[in-house]
Amino acid sequence: MTTNLKKTLLFALTGILIAVAAWAAWDWLRADGRDAGLISGNGRIEATEIDVATKYAGRLADILVQEGDFVIAGQVLARMQTEVLNAQRDEAFAQQQQAFHAVASVKAQVRMRESDLAAAQAVVVQRESELENARRRQARSETLAKEGAASAQQLDDDRAAVRNMEAMLTAARAQAAAAQSAIAAAKAQVTSAQSTVTALAATISRIDADIADSALKAPRDGRVQYRVAQPGEVLGAGGKVLNMIDLSDAYMTFFLPETVVGRVALGSEARIVLDAAPQYVIPARVSFIASVAQFTPKTVETESERQKLMFRVKARIDPELLQKHLKQVKTGLPGVAWLKLDPQAQWPQHLAVEMPE
Predict the structure, then answer these.
(1) Digit-coded pLDDT (tens) for 289-299
(2) N or C: which end of the chain has fewer CB within 10 A?
(3) If 0-12 CB within 10 Å is exposed, 13-18 middle and 19+ buried, where does residue 43 land?
């Protein structure tokens, strides 16, 4: 027998032994006499991670918390420099004051144009009265001229006076129309000036919001996991400053084979036992079952191959229970998650819930 053949047989035999040992270990966990009807999977405690990042580019002024600190929702964790934003706000405020003065000025112009209109309308009334008198004089002159009691010159003068009054009335009405147009123009300037005031108020509000966003706050209760940036660093928009975890949303992720996962329902009871504290049994419920296998062989043609399909499962710990033991919750701890394959079965004594005081 050649050396290469011996090596090949040795590798094959070793692989078979490992596979048999792995199957035996899983089969013992699945069908051990004291844990009949139970299934388990190895996993680690995880929690929802949150990145606290800056909304805008800028220099990080200060970080107010340390790694491991517990924080509450709304607590300021870090601050960005706001000198540029403060200067922009001052500039917008000064422009807003100028806009206020512009509004007052154009409103005064409106009042002035309204006075001009009133005067022009009074002139129109005066010219209408004068024209009426001139027309009456002309009528009398025409009657007297026919009777020979008035000269032709007098009649011509009265007719000229009527035409003059008509021209003056037309001019007065034109001045009144011009005054009316001037009022409309002045009111349009008032609207424009007031729009400028509104726009600058919106600019100030936006800058205030940017200044407020420069104080980076905790979006929810949790614990600071680690600092990504340090004070003095210049960060781009969306630059991460801190990473925190929401300890009220902790769970263990583990994997179950295809032959078992189909018998597990969402909401099923679970028990978690951590390697660091095997004396405690933590209650949980299945909150997630993957719809797609995580480990898939190249081909799935036989029953033995299908048994290699593994599905990711999450067992979520009750948030109220986590709140009672918040300072004891630590992510990354390895352990075992247990599930009942028969919902009617009772938990064995060694998996009865046992929590620290």
Answers:
(1) 888 877 654 44
(2) C
(3) buried
